[in-house]
Write a structure and sequence with these properties.
Number of helices: 1
Oligomer: single chain
Largest sheet: 5 strands, antiparallel
Number of domains: 2
Radius of gyration: 18 Å
Helix content: under 10%
Shape: elongated
Low-confidence stretches: none
Order of helices and strands: EEEHEEEEEE
Structural class: mainly beta
Strand content: 35-45%
CATH topology of the largest domain: Chitinase A, domain 3
Length: 143
């Protein structure tokens, strides 16, 4: 293990555990014991999240809470779509189900929020959008 510390443009192997404001666990890389590799400066993390990692070294742990805007973003009403119910003839539309739509450039998952006689409401926001999230990070290695 080296004594490198996290700086801008660092790559880090770390375990990340996310908790909701009620304390329940939303997700954790520890479940499968597969740390995540994150790259600071590549726009995949919010600036507020990156700022919490600066100065950490391998073996360090830190817990911090980010507002929705700095975690997975606010809920964007433009990401909620009403799809004709007939589009769900092969797979029944059930509230809470995750469905995947093919778009140019890849697939996009959405959560079914409502089903009525004519349409299905599909929410394409990140499932944790609009929520304050507490992150617990354990730095495995600074690359």
């Amino acid at each position: 293990m080296s004594n490198k510390t996290v700086v801008n443009d660092s790559s880090i192997m770390m375990h990340i555990t996310m908790k909701l404001s009620d304390g329940s666990a939303a997700d954790s890389t520890k479940v499968n014991n597969k740390p995540a590799k994150v790259n600071l400066g590549d726009q995949s993390l919010s600036p507020a999240f990156e700022a919490q990692l600066l100065g950490l070294s391998a073996g360090d742990s830190k817990e911090f809470t980010l507002a929705a805007a700095d975690a997975f973003g606010e809920v964007n009403p433009d990401n909620i779509h009403y799809v004709d119910r007939t589009k769900f003839s092969e797979t029944p539309a059930e509230v809470g189900s995750i469905v995947t739509f093919t778009q140019p450039g890849g697939e996009i998952p959405g959560i079914i929020r409502e089903v009525n006689d004519l349409s299905v409401t599909v929410d394409f926001n990140h499932p944790l959008a609009g929520q304050e999230i507490t992150f617990a990070v354990d730095v495995v290695e600074v690359l």
